[in-house]
């Protein structure tokens, strides 16, 4: 379905009582995306995905024009995953001429990637709400690799009374720990060899935390020290944050913490994170 009218017509064919699961994507699908489709399939009767490279969430010097768009390969992966329908709209259909309404969350969107990419989460929240209004799913699944995006969407749904159950899907990683990302294809062989240090920095901080170090500043400094083992990695941030508000904390307390990192390798920006849960083994999210 390539336009809103076709989507509405398809939506009207669903039987009463059928639970509809939705997985919004920007395409260039990988095993992480497919795991989200599988999670939706397990929880819903019908699953629809969308592919839309959303211009509102790209900054003026970011990679909108070169973002990978292998649509034929994506269609084959969706079919193999048993996805029932795909919404593939154009920019013109999603944002008609003169469109001037946006959605802006003003707390969890501000730090981390929000501080480094002004306007990014306004673009995310706007397109996700539009997609929810069009698809009208009962549940939607988002990859936890972008924990901040999940938090923004959850807050938007709560604050605006959007009747969609938001589910998070766990990070899927390469054998060496690198989190799967559509942008990994940009990495040169040398940058790809250095990239696993991002996850290694998270695991080193996790180990230090369970060894008794709870000072947020010292934990973040340790994470940066691990990244410094490679000159190819240029950190943008390495933060220890409250796991719900994403606010700054001095020490990791009873609520645990979100470890969040963003770094450039060449022209490629990668993010990763890990959730510290007191009293138990940490769980990777993102």
From TrEMBL:
Active site: 33 (proton donor)
Membrane-spanning ranges: none
Annotated metabolic or biological route of this protein: Cofactor biosynthesis; (R)-pantothenate biosynthesis; (R)-pantothenate from (R)-pantoate and beta-alanine: step 1/1
EC number of this enzyme: 6.3.2.1
Highest taxon above the source species: Bacteria
Gene Ontology molecular functions: ATP binding; pantoate-beta-alanine ligase activity
Binding site for ATP: 26-33, 143-146, 172, 180-183
The keyword Signal belongs to this UniProt entry's keyword annotation: no
Residues binding beta-alanine: 57
UniProt-listed InterPro entries: Cyt_trans-like, Pantoate_ligase, Pantoate_ligase_C, Rossmann-like_a/b/a_fold
Compartment(s) of residence: Cytoplasm
GO cellular component terms, semicolon-separated: cytosol
Record's keyword annotation contains RNA-binding: no
Keywords associated with the record: ATP-binding, Cytoplasm, Ligase, Nucleotide-binding, Pantothenate biosynthesis
Classification via SUPFAM superfamilies: Nucleotidylyl transferase
Misc note: The reaction proceeds by a bi uni uni bi ping pong mechanism.
Subunit architecture: Homodimer.
NCBIfam families according to UniProt: cyt_tran_rel, panC
Function: Catalyzes the condensation of pantoate with beta-alanine in an ATP-dependent reaction via a pantoyl-adenylate intermediate.
Protein name stated in the entry: Pantothenate synthetase
UniProt organism field: Devosia elaeis
Source species taxonomy: Bacteria, Pseudomonadati, Pseudomonadota, Alphaproteobacteria, Hyphomicrobiales
């Amino acid at each position: 379905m390539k336009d809103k009218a076709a989507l509405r017509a398809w939506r009207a064919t669903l039987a009463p009582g059928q639970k509809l699961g939705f997985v919004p994507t920007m395409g260039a699908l990988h095993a992480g995306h497919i795991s989200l489709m599988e999670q939706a399939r397990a929880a819903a009767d019908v699953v629809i995905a969308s592919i839309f490279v959303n211009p509102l969430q790209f900054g003026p010097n970011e990679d909108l024009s070169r973002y990978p768009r292998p649509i034929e390969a994506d269609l084959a992966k969706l079919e193999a995953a048993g996805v029932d329908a795909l919404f593939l709209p154009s920019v013109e259909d999603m944002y008609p001429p003169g469109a001037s309404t946006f959605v802006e969350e003003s707390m969890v969107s501000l730090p981390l990637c929000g501080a480094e990419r002004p306007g990014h989460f306004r673009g995310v929240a706007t397109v996700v709400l539009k997609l929810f209004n069009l698809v009208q799913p009962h549940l939607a699944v988002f990859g936890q690799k972008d924990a901040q995006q999940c938090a923004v969407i959850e807050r938007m749904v709560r604050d605006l009374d959007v009747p969609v159950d938001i589910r998070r899907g766990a990070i899927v990683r390469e054998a060496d720990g690198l989190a799967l990302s559509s942008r990994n294809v940009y990495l040169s062989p040398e940058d790809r060899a250095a990239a696993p240090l991002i996850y290694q920095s998270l695991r080193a901080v996790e180990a230090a935390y369970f060894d008794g170090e709870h000072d947020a500043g010292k934990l973040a400094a340790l994470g940066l020290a691990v990244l410094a083992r490679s000159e190819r990695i240029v950190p943008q941030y390495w933060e220890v944050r409250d796991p719900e508000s994403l606010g700054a904390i001095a020490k990791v307390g009873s609520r645990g913490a979100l470890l969040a990192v963003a770094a450039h390798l060449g022209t490629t920006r990668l993010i990763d994170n890990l959730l510290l849960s007191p009293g138990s083994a940490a769980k990777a999210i993102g």
